[in-house]
């Protein structure tokens, strides 16, 4: 294949691969070649799925073909362990065949992993707390999580616990105070969920 003058497209943050209707590569910009760890001469005329690592082909080829046939577009993200990177592959049909955009999404993946780790950490702290605690929705007052201390304290299976509302566990005076506190906080739209210990309500900003 003759090298295309990509011009400004070689400065884009996306790698771009052009393929004909048989998915043979007709051209690729510099960043795409870097992602593929290859050269134009090495990929010229070859099927795209023969260029990428075998595990990517095995995991994504079939789903990509089906999605392209039905919707004309498909994306997936691959962790390339040898390079320590996360690459998003986006396939689209176009008049001459197909175009593939390759994008480094490592920063987004790391952020997502950090959020997941934070959620797991918070769950561990919640579950290990020696005080009986549960989490409820500030609008419906429906309980949707209870820690082991609460399950033990009230001697109720967790599955039954989370079918109840917060008011089920409070005397009338406390329930009224709870509602007043929630209405005040909800007026400022600051609280959507609450964490409760017996006899005490603590709003949690989320």
Describe the structure.
By secondary structure, the chain is of the alpha+beta class. It has helices at 30-36, 40-43, 48-51, 54-70, 106-128, 148-154, 158-161, 172-187, and strands spanning 14-19, 25-28, 73-80, 85-94, 97-104, 134-137, 143-146, 193-197, 200-204. A five-stranded antiparallel beta sheet has the order 2-1-5-4-3, with helices on both faces. A hairpin with a 2-residue loop joins strand 8 and strand 9 (200-204). The longest helix is centred in the middle third of the chain and has 23 residues, at 106-128. It is elongated. The chain starts with 13 loop residues before the first strand and ends with a strand.
Give a short overview.
With 206 residues, this protein is an alpha+beta fold. It is 40% helix and 26% strand.
Search tags:
single chain, 206 residues, alpha+beta, five-stranded antiparallel β-sheet, elongated
Number of strands: 9
* Helical residue percent band: 25-40%
Number of helices: 8
Poorly predicted ranges = 199-206
Q: Compute the separation of the termini in Å.
A: 54 Å
State the secondary-structure class. Answer: alpha+beta
Radius of gyration: 27 Å
- Please trace the helix and strand order, writing H or E for each element: EEHHHHEEEHEEHHHEE
Largest sheet at a glance? 5 strands, antiparallel
- Multimeric status of the protein: single chain
Q: Strand arrangement, largest sheet?
A: 2-1-5-4-3
What is the percentage of strand-forming residues?
25-35%
Topology diagram in text:
Elements: E1 14-19, E2 25-28, H1 30-36, H2 40-43, H3 48-51, H4 54-70, E3 73-80, E4 85-94, E5 97-104, H5 106-128, E6 134-137, E7 143-146, H6 148-154, H7 158-161, H8 172-187, E8 193-197, E9 200-204
Antiparallel strand pairs: 1-2, 1-5, 3-4, 4-5, 6-7, 6-8, 8-9
């Amino acid at each position: 294949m003759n090298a295309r003058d990509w011009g400004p497209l070689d400065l884009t943050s996306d790698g771009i691969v052009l393929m004909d209707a048989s998915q043979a590569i007709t051209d690729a910009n510099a960043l795409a070649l870097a992602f593929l760890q290859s050269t134009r001469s090495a990929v010229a005329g070859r099927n795209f799925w023969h260029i990428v690592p075998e595990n990517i082909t095995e995991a994504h080829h079939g789903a990509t073909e089906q999605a392209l046939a039905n919707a004309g577009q498909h994306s997936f993200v691959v962790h390339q362990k040898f390079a320590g990177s996360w690459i998003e592959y986006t396939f689209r049909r176009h008049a001459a065949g197909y175009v593939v955009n390759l994008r480094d999404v490592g920063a987004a993946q790391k952020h997502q992993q950090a959020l997941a780790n934070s959620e797991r950490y918070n769950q561990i702290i919640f579950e290990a707390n020696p005080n009986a605690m549960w989490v409820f929705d500030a609008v419906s007052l429906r309980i949707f999580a209870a820690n082991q201390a609460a399950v033990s304290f009230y001697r109720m299976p967790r599955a039954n616990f989370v079918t109840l509302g917060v008011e089920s566990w409070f005397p009338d005076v406390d329930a009224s105070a709870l509602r007043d506190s929630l209405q005040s906080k909800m007026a400022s739209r600051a609280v959507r969920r609450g964490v409760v210990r017996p006899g005490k309500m603590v709003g949690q900003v989320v």
